[in-house]
Structures are given as C-alpha cells and as structure tokens.
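Obj.: predict assembly geometry.
Materials: sequence records (below).
Method: joint structure prediction, all chains together.
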Amino acid sequence: MSPVLEPVVPLSARRRTVPRWLRRTTGPLVLLIAWQVCSATGVLSPDTLASPGTIARTASDLIGDGTLPHAMLVSVQRVLVGLLIGAVAGVSLALVSGLSRLGEDLVDATVQMLRTIPWVGMIPLFIIWLGIGEAPKIALISLGVTFHLYLNVYAGIRGVDAQLIEAGTSLGLGRWGLIRHVVLPGALPGAMTGLRYSLATAWLALVFGETINADDGIGFLLNRAREFFQTDVIVVCLIVYAALGLLADFIVRTLERLLLQWRPSFTGK
Amino acid sequence: MATELHGQIGPVEKETPAEIPADGPADGPADAPAGPDAPAAVRVHGLTRTFDGRAVIDRLELTVRPGEFVALLGHSGCGKSTLLRILAGLDREIEGEVLVPRTKAVAFQSPRLMPWKRVWRNVLLGLPGRPGRAVAERALAEVGLGHRSTAWPKTLSGGEAQRASLARALVREPDLLLLDEPFGALDALTRIKAQQLVAELWQRRGCAVLLVTHDVEEALLLADRVLVMDHGVIAYEREIGLDRPRDISDPRFAELRAELLDRLGVVAPTAAPTAAPTTATAASPAASPRKAA
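Observations (raw structure tokens):
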C-alpha cells in the first residue's frame, strides 16, 4: 500500500494579507491612540502625563524658539568630547596591555580593579574634584566609555587566532607587521562591540550627569520642567534622548558594515 | 640548480654561524646518498626537539635535494608536523643543526587566510618591497583562481581557499615549499584536483617540496621519495621510481602502497586474515610480504 502523498507548499505560495511593516506599526499606534483617548476623557491628568497632542505642540514650540536645538547641541557636544577622551584612554590602555606582557601586568590588574567601582558612584567625587561645570559631566562619560572599550578591545586583541599569527610569521611579517595586518584587524569586531556598549553607556552617563547639576543641555530642560510639573517637556526630553541614542546606534552599525564587510554576516533570514 | 642554504635555524639561546657540519652526516637510513658537499635544499643534522622532557624528534637526520619532492608519512603525533614547523622556522626550541633556504613558504592544513584582507592582498601579505597587485593576480591565475582575487576569504569554498593559500606560498618563489597536510580538510574530489595542481606547480617551479601527510596514496602520487617517521627519527625511506603522471591502478603502485602501509603498521586489506584461502593464493604480490611477515 502506497503512502498518502501531500504537496510541499513553496514559501512564495503563502499569501501575506497584511504587509509586515504595517503589522509592526499597529502595536505602537494602538498604544498612542489609547493614550490620547485617556488624556482627552480626563482619565489621565496632564499633571501625571501630558497627552500626545500636547507633547507634539510643546516639541514644535521648543524647536521653534531654539531652546531644544541649543540644548541638544550642548548635550551632544558633551557626549562627543567624553566619548573621544574615553575612546583614546580605553583603546590606548587596551593596546598597551593587549600587545605586551609587561603592559598587561602593569595595566590590566589596575583597570580590572577600578572597573568594579560603579561609575555612577563617582559623581560626588567628581563634583568635589572638578566643580559643577562641564568637567565632571565629561569625566563621567569618559569613565564609562573607557572601561567598556578597554575590556572589548583587550579581549579582541587576545582573542586573535594564534594560527593566523603563526601564518603571518611564516609569511615573514615582523612584530609591527603582525600587529598591523593580523592583530589589529582581528581585534576590530571586539572593538566595535565595545564602541556600541560604550555609546549606550555614554548616553546613560549624560543623563546622570545632567540631571544632577546642569545649567544647560537637555538635562537642564528636564530638571526645570520637573520643577514646574511640565510633563509634556519631560516627555519631549526623553524622546530626544531616545532619538539620539538610536542615531548613535545607527552610526555604529553603519561603521560596522563598512569596516567589517569581510565578515559573512548573519542576515537573520 | 643548486639552492643556496641561507638561514640556519639555531637553538634559540645560541647563535651559531651557518655552516655545514664538517663531519658529514652520521649513518642512518634517512641520509640521502649525497655527501655533505652536494647541493641540498634542506640539511638537518642531529635535530632534537623535546616537549616536557619527551623527545618528539630524536637526533633526526634529513637531507632534501634541490627540486626534490619528498613526502613525510607517519602516525599522528609522530612528530612530522613538528619537523615541518621547525623547518619553517616556527619552532625554535631545538637542539642540533638545521639548514634551510632563506626563501621558503608554508601551506598549512587550514588555509589560514586573513579574513579581513581580500584574496589578492592575502597573497601579497609579508612580501618584501611593495609588489603590485599584478604579482598577486599572476600567482592566483597560476592556481586557477584569477577570477576570485577580490573576494573575501570567507566567501571561498574549501578548495578555493586552499588554492589561494598555495598561491600565497608560491608567490614568494620559494626554494623550499612546506606543505602540512594541505589536502586533509578537502573533500575527495577537490583533493584529487588539488593534488594534480600541486604536481603541476612543482614541475613548473622546480622547488624542493616537503609534504607532510598521512595519506599513503597521496605520497605515492606526488613524491620522488617517501619517508616514514617513527619514534622521532626517519625510520624508513623509499625512492619512488614510478613514471609521472602516476597511475593508482599500476600494479607497482599497489605494491609500493602495501609496502608503505606495512611500514606504518597497517594491515593491507588484501592480506587480512579473514580472506578466503582461494583469494589468498590468488592475491597480488603486494600481499605476500605481509603473509611472510
């Protein structure tokens, strides 16, 4: 007796009634509408949370009078300077301890020890040391960035395939040639992961730094709005933080695509 | 075409001048018939390499003539790869005298291409001076990989990657080419093609080749001389006088194969004790030494 045969249906034959992007936008949209309805019917008081409509109006006002662009500029500047300092420090330390045994012995233990201190806890010390100007905010951002980059770049350097280093040696590469052609490119994926983490940390450090003492920037807007119960301004500031974080992530991903194009990437099909 | 012996791979701690030992090679089965003044591409005298007090290579003697294709057989762990690494200059914790040409190249079992460099840049990596891309293209064309020169290594198939690795070795125009089981990771069909390619390249280039392998047939297909390594020395050697291109179905090939397998301590299937008496009497001469042994 022969078995019952059934057709293997090709994937393309499966009809999609609703396009994927539309399905994905449904959830957030429903939430937004519910929020607006709650605000309009008075279930949600404006002192608790402003309605989406009010928030949109406030945002356009803040942009219109130049308050928000100025605050964003100040905040982004802080992140960039902090990131730069932290990146230079983190990558240099990682190179020193990754590339030489002596450097490892001197640097690694120290950094690993300092790393265990929660960097947010350093805020009071930074205020005592550096006052309440730009310096403590930038220092806080740099600190968070340094450790993330250090750990990932160092791990990247140490994780380079020993077989490739041997192959490089057999091809006649010297110490500097090995570092340039084998070790550093091999550490790049780790470095990019570190950059991604450190950017997230940088935004977090910015929020902490700015809410504690600020006379400028998004954090300053946020604090002032709290004093006047302007929940609309608070939400606008949070959205700006989120958007800037997204932008940073986009930049890193673009950078990864450019620098790591040799990696067969997992497309998630 | 004598190969000049340049680099002496000395023990790490002492630098001795590069010179050929005056007392000549000690007698041992591994010594080539040529005297110490004959041209050589490799000259090894009294080489010892110990790992934690255990001598993996024990006072080994070896001479390879310029342009000679030598295959080195042995069980895994017999030290054949260690010997290759020593000749490549990758392992210097040695005692004894090792003379190798200055220009030598290695192709490893895995292709070991730098994944972040395009194929042609991999080929040029480590070459002195600033050779142009055309140099790499020529070498790649020679191994039939000209169309893949701008590919990323991770997009190559196993056979392609191994050919790129060969191109990278050959572009150095080595006097000595060291092959460490280069076909081991390839599938059977690709392996046959790769073996043919190596035979062609060797005949064209005329460099000395040391092929480390555990595949007896591969050794017999390619080599002028087959060495069997055991207990840290060259325990047995055999000149292979078969005409090229070689044919696996040649009865002399089967004979040599059985002989080498015997030396490696492997019982050839035709001589298996389970064979019926009728087949045993009709067995090829290759099986008889086994029965006698």
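Conclusions so far: The two ends of chain B are 42 Å apart (CA to CA).
To do: check interface contacts against the pulldown list.
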